[in-house]
Amino acid sequence: MTVENQVYDIAVVGGGIVGAASAYKIQKKFPDLKVILFEKEDELAAHQTGHNSGVIHSGLYYRPGSYRAKNCVAGRRELVKFAQEHKVDHDVCGKVVVATNESELPYLDKIFQNGLANDTEGIEKIDAAKVKEIEPFVEGVAGIYVPCTGIIDFVGATNKMAELMLGINPESKVMLGTEIKGFQKGDTQLLHTNKGDFKAKRLVFCGGLQSDRLAKKDDIKLDMQIVGFRGDYYELAEHAKHKVKNLIYPVPNPAFPFLGVHFTRMVNGEIECGPNAVFTFKREGYGKLDFDARDSAKALTYGGTWKLFRKHWRFGLDEYKRAFSKRLFLERLRGLIPSLEMDDLVPGRAGVRAMALGPDGEIIDDFKIEYKEGSIHVLNAPSPAATSALAIGESVSEMAKKHFGL
What is the pLDDT of residues 264-285, one digit of tens each? Predict the structure, then answer.
């Protein structure tokens, strides 16, 4: 049964920060359009957005010229301005990237050159004494100070974007607890949901962990598949919080696709330590033993998954050991802060990262947005997607203007 006879101009599927930013940017650019935002959970930002580290990334790590690099820097600046204007809790507190031994210095320099190429403002190389002045409990031989990095309430930012969208056009709508089960394409698209059918002229998909499945429902031929990787965090106990002032990052190992465990002061005052990175048997599973038969079968029958495993099996095994051993997790954290003790750590939350894998097992590390016959699909939006959300939303709105004839 059709719930509404209302025909929306654009339906955005996915209520994470990228979906909310896309809906907001389209609405802002075209205030007379009726936009509807669908989220299958009962609140916005329920998955990747609400489970990430809360860091406003600087653009330091990403390949110069890539969409990630360009959108991170532009998106960060816009996000900070947005947070200031709309009173979203945030703090541009800066961070240090620390080399703990001489062997890491060449890659530290590469990261620094990346930052310069990406126009990451204010970065400077610092010596061991300066590292310790910024973060007294850290032991390192050199570092990079990144003053433009910060922390933010990404959930609050997401909700503010949706609120502003509705304020621009009261005929627009946000539908929570509404899952897209399928759709029929035509001059007007008919979306089948658990709450009935909705009509929209054009569709934008920002499905995050479900992006490939939504694309397949739209008959898009993919050269990738989403495979989930869970990251577990510890938090510093109250008596140990003085050991971290702001944000502390290691020099990432270039052989592996993750930044490594780091320390993050959150906007709520907590200090997170982590994450590790382990294959998850459930795309939206945040517990260490969570399992979903469909998700597991999909990932483990994909050739790209096994090629990734073969390439990084030793790294993956070490990460799994850390997932179940607080002692091993502590050892890794002590690489940056040697004075940490077991009772300094208390169990924290977890997040799941949507990793786009090619059939050759290579990670597709850049943003990927495609158009097909009345639909725009954000197929891959890895970190720093949350930082870049407003820039991604601007790109989506420009694509909508071009392809939707707005």
Answer: 999 999 999 999 999 999 999 9
Identify whether the C-beta of residue 25 lies closer than 8 Å to the C-beta of residue 217.
Answer: no
Question: HEC string of the chain?
Answer: CEEEEEEEEEEEECCCHHHHHHHHHHHHHCCCCCEEEECCCCCCCCCHHHHCCCEECCCCCCCCCCHHHHHHHHHHHHHHHHHHHHCCCEECCCEEEEECCHHHHHHHHHHHHHHHHCCCCCCEEEEHHHHHHHCCCCCCCEEEEECCCEEECHHHHHHHHHHHHHHHCCCCEEECCCCEEEEECCCCEEEEECCEEEEEEEEEECCHHHHHHHHHHCCCCCCCEEEEEEEEEEEECHHHHHHCCCEEEECCCCCCCCCCCEEEECCCCCEEEECCCEECECCCCCCCCCECHHHHHHHHCCHHHHHHHHHCHHHHHHHHHHHCCHHHHHHHHCCCCCCCCHHHEEEEEEEEEEEEECCCCCECCCCEEEEECCEEEEEECCCCHHHHHHHHHHHHHHHHHHHCCC
Q: Is 88 exposed, middle or buried (0-12, 13-18, 19+ CB in 10 A)?
A: buried
Q: Buried b / exposed e across 357-378, counting CB within 10 Å, b at 16+? A: bbeebebbbbbbbbbeebbbbb
Contact in structure between 54 and 201 (CB atoms under 8 Å):
no
Position 75 pLDDT exceeds 70: yes
What's the first-to-final CA gap in the chain, in angstroms? 30
Exposed, middle or buried: residue 301 (CB in 10 Å: 0-12, 13-18, 19+)? exposed
**Quick one: average pLDDT of 393-401?**
97
Distance CA 108, CA 98 (A): 8
pLDDT score for 315: 84
pLDDT at 294 over 80: yes
| Domain 2-49+155-223+365-403 indexed as CATH 3.50.50.60 | yes
pLDDT of residue 360: 96
Give span(s): CATH 3.50.50.60, the chain. 2-49+155-223+365-403
Query: Which candidate, 13, 44, 58, 28, places its Cα nearest to that of 379?
Result: 13
Q: How far apart are CA 347 and CA 138, in angstroms?
A: 22
pLDDT reading at 364 higher than 80? yes
Please give the pLDDT value at position 186.
Answer: 85
